[in-house]
User: What shape does this take?
Amino acid sequence: MSTALVPGVERILFTEEQIEARIGEVGAQISRDYQGKTIKLVGVLKGSIFFLTALARRIEVPLTIDFLGISSFSNKSGAPGVVRIAKDLDESIEGEDVLLVEDIVDTGFTLRYLLQTLAGRAPNSLSVCTFLDRNSRRIVQAQVDYRCFEIPDRFVVGFGLDYNQLYRNLSYVAVMKTDKSL
Ligand code: IMP
Ligand code: MG
Assistant: This one.
């Protein structure tokens, strides 16, 4: 999709060029840290797939890829934080060096659940790489080993992130208009 601003979007936060450059830096860092190993990249559907494929191309050690899908619910009082696996990994991660790839860590509920679940499957190591981090909204602490960008407390779309399943194919990351009107 072109870089022209689409309706509903207020302003660009990170351009395609900035994203590509930053992913190159993080990919190089991961390549250094995992020297001599084979990484299993675990992507969380669907938001992380754009980031995962871009990151994978910038990692210079051998790697394999698997995906899982999750559903998040609010509990009866309307509070967030109830997460379950809707589509599990295809393969075992026992003994593997797993790098969990997320689109964004916000409250931390999703990441904490995924880390607990995956840690119970006896990987050799388990680390986290997130494209975006909105630390200001964290409710539960969760380990983040690599992050591309810290973002302000605004809803963002693009490069995999959606609003009602739309906007994932934007090549940039943008802040939504507050009223989200199209
Ligand atoms: P957490 O459990 O609150 O950390 O939720 C993280 C999940 O919420 C992400 O994987 C996204 O699916 C979604 N999310 C949080 N903030 C945004 C945003 O600004 N834009 C799009 N999706 C978001
Ligand atoms: Mg997600």
Remarks:
- The beta strands are 9-14, 39-45, 63-73, 82-87, 97-105, 125-133, 146-150, 156-157, 173-176.
- The CA atoms of residues 159 and 171 lie 5 Å apart.
- The helical segments are 16-33, 49-57, 109-119.
- The mean pLDDT is 93.
